Amino acid sequence: MSNQASTLFDKVWDAHVVRKIEDGPDVFFIDRHFIHEVTSPVAFLGLESRNIGVMYPERTFATADHNTPTINQHLPVQDPLSANQLKALETNSAKYGISHWGLGHARNGIVHVVGPENGITLPGMTIVCGDSHTSTHGAFGAIAFGIGTSEVEMVLSSQCIMQPKPKKMRVNVNGTLGKGVTPKDVTLYIISKLTTAGATGYFVEYAGDVFRNMSMEGRMTVCNMSIEMGARGGMIAPDETTFAYINGREQAPKGEKWDKALAYWKTLKTDEGAVFDKEYTFDAAEIEPMITYGTNPGMGQGISRAIPTSDQVEGGKATYDKSLNYMGFHENESMLGKKIDYVFIGSCTNGRIEDFRAFASIVKGRKKADNVTAWVVPGSHIVEAQIKEEGILDILTDAGFELRQPGCSACLAMNDDKIPAGKYAVSTSNRNFEGRQGPGARTLLASPLVAAAAAVTGVVTDPRELL
Amino acid sequence: MAYDKFTILRSTAVPLPIENVDTDQIIPARFLKATKREGFGDNLFRDWRYNGDDTPKQDFVLNNPIYSGKILVGGHNFGSGSSREHAAWAIYDYGFRCVVSSFFADIFKGNSLNIGILPVQVSAAFLDKIFLAIEADPNAELEVNLPDQKITILSTGESESFDINGYKKHNLMNGFDDIDYLQAMKNEIREFETERIY
Ligand code: SF4
């Protein structure tokens, strides 16, 4: 059976099983563990109460991002509870010898942005973090997924977690994307087709022309959103684009180690004839710039379409009505022309340099609409520096935008970046749940291009008209 | 963290017939700032349960005194969204030991099992029957029998069996957790680690 065709996912998974438990999960080894201030303190308390230590501190990386402020980061954090969590991360990291990129550190930023940009994320790895968008790292051909705090404690204390092996799904998108259609649109499109629970129980591999031709930033955006259709994670086989991205990054293998790693990485692909439990194929030409109109990421559609009626969507009418009611929208209304109050560009979904390039491509030579408050938040200090170096900051400033400092910001609104109740925000983040961006906030998920078009016109606008 | 052993639970139930209840509803992010696992039950379903001025919303089920119990019955795709274990903590801390739905999001299900909450997945038809039984009589009791993997509506006698893997079942019934298991196999892990290329 050894030469049986297997999938990328199987190859990486099987290489990390320490022990198989009969009628139970696999004991699964974790190569890289990221921690942040919100989901780790209780795990460290757990270690203390059991009187056990951290088994491999060099395999864990700490960064502060979830509740950090995005202005005046040089000042003490105002909110005492946030300050307390940040302090706990720092103290725990120091105590156990874990690398810690705290607030103000040159490499600080959102955990799923800094991992890849510093070469910590590599193909064939297993990567976990107490944040569900850990799936981002799958863009490199890694198995990466979010875990709960009990599991954070498991990884700290034993470098393993207990995981039943998920089923396998492949999503193919073939053809060429149209003008103004970005990786974010591809993922919102897929989620709208599969629904928010459509991939629950599965691990997804993305394949086809569209992903082959996509940049690493774009692949990260797509893998990031895998969780929004219920999947544990998503991955893309590494190729020359991947290797070129990694080569030379701070913690990437060098010299002989690089050659050895590269030889291994080249084996990381799904064999011809390997079988998936489920497979979907979509045509790139069908995908428009997308926007969501409801309160879960599956409630999205092409920007030029009218809001569906309840009989056109799956699920109960009561739930659908509740959702539209929360949004203040009605069936059959057009999304185009809806007034916007806030625009947020950032997060681990769309907070990388390519996203700010896209945003600037529309903003350039235009002005921010007066009715719009815009939060432009880089994913990391490295991204922030790139924005300045490439002249994007000048474009933003000329158009009346301010650049903030890196962090999760309005993606989950744990810091002060909260959208006020009842206000509409076009957001490049990943979740439009009720209250996600602040109590009562109304979120429209979209790409950086759609966000830029809304920011300069003050209403939902098809970005293709401005390109 | 130790939790109570789970064997047979007989209780009234609180109905929440809403689909896609996500973890941001179960516990909004602004309540995740604690560094200890305490007091999360107060903020369970915070924004559905309280108005902006902290007065209770009378029409929300947790504020309705006729419903109570250790079992929460939710609509399809319960627990979607974030990996925050705080969602499961809030449910546990409020006093629930079991959540019933026709479908659970993966991470929520895993987190629940890890902290001693039993997620019971039933068919859509059986879920409807449970909702009907509670609607007919808020004092209607359910029996969740973990050893037999069976859930019964006591007022009607209708029952259905549910799945759980043998390992997790054993853990829940004995109050064990994964960390105990992993600590016991550290030598095996150490050997495995030395072979890793990263
Ligand atoms: S940006 Fe949002 S999704 Fe990403 S790590 Fe931060 S909170 Fe999580």
Automatic annotation (TrEMBL), chain A:
One of its GO terms (biological process) is L-leucine biosynthetic process. Its cofactor is [4Fe-4S] cluster. It catalyses: (2R,3S)-3-isopropylmalate = (2S)-2-isopropylmalate. Keywords: 4Fe-4S, Amino-acid biosynthesis, Branched-chain amino acid biosynthesis, Iron, Iron-sulfur, Leucine biosynthesis, Lyase, Metal-binding. Heterodimer of LeuC and LeuD. PANTHER family: 3-ISOPROPYLMALATE DEHYDRATASE (PTHR43822:SF9), HOMOACONITASE, MITOCHONDRIAL-RELATED (PTHR43822). Catalyzes the isomerization between 2-isopropylmalate and 3-isopropylmalate, via the formation of 2-isopropylmaleate. This is 3-isopropylmalate dehydratase large subunit. The gene is leuC.
Automatic annotation (TrEMBL), chain B:
It catalyses: (2R,3S)-3-isopropylmalate = (2S)-2-isopropylmalate. Belongs to the LeuD family. LeuD type 1 subfamily. It holds the Pfam family Aconitase_C. Pathway: Amino-acid biosynthesis; L-leucine biosynthesis; L-leucine from 3-methyl-2-oxobutanoate: step 2/4. It comes from Dyadobacter flavalbus. Catalyzes the isomerization between 2-isopropylmalate and 3-isopropylmalate, via the formation of 2-isopropylmaleate. Keywords: Amino-acid biosynthesis, Branched-chain amino acid biosynthesis, Leucine biosynthesis, Lyase. This is 3-isopropylmalate dehydratase small subunit. GO terms for biological process: L-leucine biosynthetic process. Its EC number is 4.2.1.33. InterPro entries: 3-IsopropMal_deHydase_ssu, Aconitase/3IPM_dehydase_swvl, AconitaseA/IPMdHydase_ssu_swvl, IPMI_Swivel, LeuD. GO terms for molecular function: 3-isopropylmalate dehydratase activity. Heterodimer of LeuC and LeuD. NCBIfam families: leuD, PRK01641.1.
